[in-house]
Amino acid sequence: MLWSDPENEPPKELRDMQETLRRLGLFLALAMLVAMVVLGVR
């Protein structure tokens, strides 16, 4: 039960999916921010 145990690490597919979801969330947040700015300017 040490921190270095490899059994606790999620599989590569799960890590890739988490990274993709993180990027998608960041992109969505940026898109909403840009949309608010555009709507606020008009």
What's a concise summary of this model?
By secondary structure, the chain is mostly helical. The chain is built from one helix and no strands.
Folded structure, characterized:
- It holds the Pfam family MmpB.
- InterPro entries: MmpB-like.
- Keywords: Membrane, Transmembrane, Transmembrane helix.
- This protein is an all-alpha fold and about 40 residues long.
- It is built from 1 helix and no strands.
- The model has no long low-confidence stretch (mean pLDDT about 85).
What keywords describe this structure?
MmpB-like, 42 residues, transmembrane, transmembrane helix, 1 helix, membrane, mainly alpha
Structural class: mainly alpha
Order of helices and strands: H
Q: Biggest sheet: strands, sense, closure?
A: none
Q: Which shape, going by the Cα principal axes? A: rod-shaped
What's the end-to-end separation, in Å? 58 Å
What Rg do the Cα atoms give? Answer: 18 Å
Mean pLDDT: 87
Number of helices: 1
Proportion of strand residues: under 5%
InterPro entries: MmpB-like
Transmembrane segments: 20-41
Keywords: Membrane, Transmembrane, Transmembrane helix
